[in-house]
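Thread: Modeling a multi-component assembly for a lab meeting

Hi all, long-time lurker, first post. My supervisor asked me to bring a structural picture of a complex we are working on to next week's group meeting, and I have zero experience with this. I have the sequence lines for every component (740 residues in total). Could someone generate the structure of the whole assembly? Inputs are pasted exactly as I received them:
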Amino acid sequence: MSSLAVRKAAPAAGTTPGTAQGPPLRRRIAFVPTLTLLLGALYCLLPVAWVAIAATKSGRELFSTFTFLPGTGFAENLKDLNAYRDGVYWKWMGNSALYAGLGALLSTAVSALSGYALAIYRFRGRETVFNVLLAGVLMPPVILAIPQYLLLAKADLTDSYASVLLPLVLSPYGVYLARIYATAAVPGDVVEAGRMDGASEWRIFTRIALPMMIPGLVTVFLFQFVAVWNNFLLPYIMLSDDEKFPITLGLFTLLEQGANAPALYTLVITGALLAVIPLIALFLVIQRFWSLDLLSGAVKS
Amino acid sequence: MPNTKLGRLVATSVAVALGATALAACGSSDDDSRADSGPVSLTYWSWTPGMDKVADLWNKGPGKKDQITVTVKKQASGDTLVTKILTAHKAKKAPDLVQAEYQALPTLVSNDALADIAGEAGGVKDKFAEGVWQQTTLGSDAVYAIPQDSGPMMFYYRQDLFKKYGLKVPETWDEFAETARALKKKSPDTDLTTFSANDSGLFAGLAQQAGAKWWTTEGDKWKVGIDDAASQKVADFWGGLVEEGAIDNQPMYTPAWNKALNTGKQIAWVSAVWAPGTLTTAAPDTKGKWAMAPLPQWTDSDNVTGSWGGSSTAVTTDSQHKAAAAKFASWLNTDPEALTALAKEGGIYPAATTAQTSDAFAEPPAFFSNQPDFYTKAADIAKTTAPSAWGPNVNVAYTTFKDAFGKAAKNKSDFGAALKTMQDDTVADMKKQGFEVAE
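Re: Modeling a multi-component assembly
Sure thing. I ran the full set together rather than chain by chain. Output:
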């Protein structure tokens, strides 16, 4: 991965005109881009390292010992987190997994269907629909949270799992991505051939187009999963029962306990560290699909 | 009340979103507090830790008899919760009971979110100090909430280090300034304390002690007195100390602040009754080395304090069972059993005066085991709490305070100008919201 990154970054950084044109004969390490990337990596990883190290510190050590000196309280922190309100943390973790997993799955399914339809079928108003969707991509979801709350309140659905899941189902960005991907990955000829052979539209979609779209849909799924996992405002507005909270919201209640109870920093930090693990695991598992994506692209062109 | 960036972000985004939807203000609320008969079930939004356990006491005891069941839904505290309550209220879905900080009450009342429970709960008035109770009536005949906890302000100092540096506990603010200067002379690297602009409640409390009245009504107009003489006196006092370098100008609740307290680089803190909890996490190595004294006074003959923090229990206009909700709120904040449980589970300092000297407060906080009469002293100080005057946009004033005073403290510049900014921005916002403001 790193060698690929270095080669890709070299022309972009524009070091010498020689390296930018054509493949270099001898692989040289380009110092400036490498250094830039290393700095970037450091910038991204340092906060993670901070969380990982801070999670090992006991409350007494947290602010008094050197920042990057591991502490002795990790087991204690885990135990406290586990004991907090009878293990409600794991409930939050489960809720987050449900919201992110099911929400991303539903939204990927919807995105796949609508993206495919927008890419393959020609119908009146197609561009209008697409342009409206594009406008939706630009609209920050924060603005929608309150109107969505008021709508769902009319349907008496607030403070339920559905209140968080429903608004997630339609993701303009997902549809947009799926359409772009379907346009590129599903050739019109193949669809036409399927029709010639008498396959129904549904069959063409599920048996022919869908497998071709998988790498793109994985991307949509992953984007949605991460977005929902980190989402804060929507569940904050929708939910009032802390048994239904996702992890972001739960940790927030640990921080803001009012003046009489100090913020439970050690628990929040440990909780945040644990909350990152599923995301990392997901990325590691799904990475395979992405390399497939790169390969298939290369073969086709 | 550590105010997180996240919290502010949420408040801002919710405010933006609320503005964007441009919802028409909701009309009159249907006021059908029908006579409660049959089982009633109430929901209660609260951030106090362990509130569910206190509600269980009710559900198994008096609540069972009256067939009133209370379900606690734990929330995050702060301005964000006020916005959440208002959003829910727009959809007529606010819970029956909410916990609200005193300074948030006018905002909630002016949005018609809180019910007047004078009829049901007015009888508990004499259980509370005058200055505390008055915050729940907003100076009217109505009662919009029952006080739960209060935060009378006090002066905390490192007993051992005061002795080491030969300092006397200041009884007036002049002595306070002298103490800060004397310490600087003896140990230039040590600060008496810091002026922090990241929690507006501190400055509001100090101004309140000096006699400031930030929001008052004149006829049917609001009058904003944020830059009145009393507040100016307080601003100039602290601004002067910061400018001459007698005290530090770094914000509170940061890791650096924790470290300064923990290592004895800062040896005093102007805070409120809940300080022991904060010190326990901020400065764990200093256990048993602190002591509490009354807040320094402006003149020798004075004996007043401000309040910083504290909250109340309110019944919303959306509740279908206002009488039942008011009954629970009264029990929660006046019943000895409930208050003892609140102190034990939630670590609150009760607003009810009898509870302040109850068995639950016989022992000092563990962090202050060296001061056995901590709570006796605290109860005496609590009685001297000055009345406070909150208005409908405290959040705006607080945000401007953080920005203007934060900048002034950092640059060691004129605090008076910062106060003027705070006044102007607050008045401008009230006018924008459609309140009539007297000049």
